[in-house]
Write a structure and sequence with these properties.
Layout (H helix, E strand, L loop, with lengths): L10 E9 L4 E8 L5 E7 L6 E3 L5 E3 L2 H11 L7 H17 L4 E3 H15 L1 H11 L5 H14 L8 H18 L3
Parallel strand pairs: 4-6
Antiparallel strand pairs: 1-2, 2-3, 4-5
Helix pairs in contact: 1-2, 3-4, 4-5
The chain binds zinc ion.
Amino acid sequence: MQCPYCQHINSRVLESRSSEGGQSIRRRRECLSCKHRFTTYERVEFVPITVIKHDGKKESFDHSKLLRGMVRACEKTGISHQRLEAIVDEIEAKLQQHPRREVTSQEIGQLVLDYLRQENEVAYIRFASVYGRFQGIKDFVATLKQFQTKNPSSPTLWPKNTHNCSDQETSSSSIMTPS
Ligand SMILES: [Zn+2]
């Protein structure tokens, strides 16, 4: 780090401490040549992320737009606004760490789905219905199946009915079977 007084390139660090609520590190330095002291800040570089939309148009990643879409999809699902904000923060941090500066809206949608899958099935299906651009009931069923295969232990939308039906079928077929 170049000294602001004499432009000497070597300095020693006298003190390092976290600042700006952990967003940066403040270092107190002393120039090895002129002995002047100065302060430097180190923080994670913020790089704008470009999103390539379905129609091929590009726009910058918009934190609040993604949050709005998720709030809409997750209405009355019991996921708190704070949790959704935290998810958007995590997604943005992931994108910031991504080596590519351009991502497709599908990739972002998939990231959101990965989070929602762990949170809530209704929110997952609703978000998938918007971002997955369902063409019809076939796509809906495919998404539901995808959810269920990746979450074999989680409750499904209609667990009781399915169970009752199959139970009845089993019992009635065993009655029907001649012994
Ligand atoms: Zn100096």
